[in-house]
From TrEMBL:
List of residues binding substrate: Q156, R177, E214, E240
GO process terms (BP): transmembrane transport
Source organism per UniProt: Cohaesibacter celericrescens
Name used for this protein in its record: ABC transporter substrate-binding protein
GO CC terms in record: tripartite ATP-independent periplasmic transporter complex
Residues annotated to bind Na(+): W215
Residues passing through the membrane, by range: none
PANTHER family: EXTRACYTOPLASMIC SOLUTE RECEPTOR PROTEIN, PTHR33376
Keywords: Metal-binding, Signal
Amino acid sequence: MDRRSFLKKATLASGAAAATTLAAPAIAQDKRTLKLVTTWPKNFPGLGTGAQRMADRITAMTDGRLTVKLYGAGELVPPFECFDAVSTGTADMYHGAEYYWQGKHKAFNFFTAVPMGLTGNELDAWILNGGGQELWDELAAQFNIKPFMAGNTGVQMGGWFNKEINSLEDLKGLKMRMPGLGGEVLRRMGASAVALPGGEIFPSLQSGAIDATEWVGPWNDLAFGFYKITKFYYYPGFHEPGSGLSCGVNLDLFNSLSKADQAVVQNACMAENNFMYSEFNAKNGAALETLLNKHSVNLKQFPDEVFDAIGKVSEEVVAEVADTDELSKRIYDSYITARKNVGDWGRIAEQTYTLSRDRVLG
C-alpha cells in the first residue's frame, strides 16, 4: 500500500470515528427515564406486580429508550396524590383506580367501577368498542392526563365484617372501608364509609377504627391477612363487579412522544389489562380454598333483602352522577347503554352456558 492510499484510508477511518463520537450524545439524549407512581404497595400481588410488569414492558419494547421507574405507594407521593402528581408533571405516569379521583370529577367512577355496573368483560367492551375511551379521553384531558385501561381484578367480594349481616339493620352504624360510589350507597343505608389506601386497611381494621372492609378478592385479601381479624367473608361485591385499573400519562409528555412510542405505551397497558384479569381469575379460586380450609373463614352470601335494597339505592346514586354536567350525562348514558346491550348478550351466552354447565357437571 503506498503512502497516499494509506493516508486516504486513515482519513476516512478518522472521519467515521469522529462521526460516531458526535452521534453518541444524540442517542443518549434520546433516552428518557419516566417516573411511574402507584396507589399500591410495591410488589403487592396482582396490583403492585401488575404495575411493575407494565413498566417493564415499556422499557423492554423500547430497548431502554423509555425506561420506566416505578415508585410504590408513598415512595414518591402519597397514594391518593398520584393523580395530581401526574397532572402537574411531578411524575410522568400513574397506575391506580380512577374512582380514587372522584373528588376531581365524579364521572371518573365509571372508568373503574360503579355499583351494579359492568363486569370486567363488559367494561372492556364499552371502553374499547363502545365509545368509552373517547369519553374518558375527553374527561381526563381537562386534567392534562391521557388514560388507558391497564388491569382488571374481576368481580370483587362483598367484604370482611366483624359480625353477620342478616338484615338492613345490621348495616346501620357500621364503619366500613369502601371508596367510590359504593361508599355513598353505604352511607345512604345508614353505614359510615371510609376511603383508605390499601396499606392502611389492616391496621385500621385491627385497631377498630373500621368494623368492616372490602379490598379485592380472595387472592389479595389472603395476602393482606384480613382473616386474622375477622372471619365473616361476604359475597358478591355490589360495588365493584369488574374493577378496571388504569395508567394515566401526563398529556404533555404523551404528546411529545413519537407515534411509535405512543403505540408502545398503549399496547403495554392493554397487555397488562388482559394479563392481570386472567391472573386474578386463575388465583382467586385457590386462595379462597386456603381461606376456607386453612383459616376457617366463614363464607356467606348477602341476604336477598339486603342485596335488593342496596341495588335500588345504587341505581339512584349512579344516576345522580349524570346531573353533574353535560359530559357526565353523556358518559352515564353511554355506560347504561353498554350495560343493557352487552349485558343482554352475556345473559344469553356466557351466563346461560356456565349455569347449564354447572347443572350438568356439578
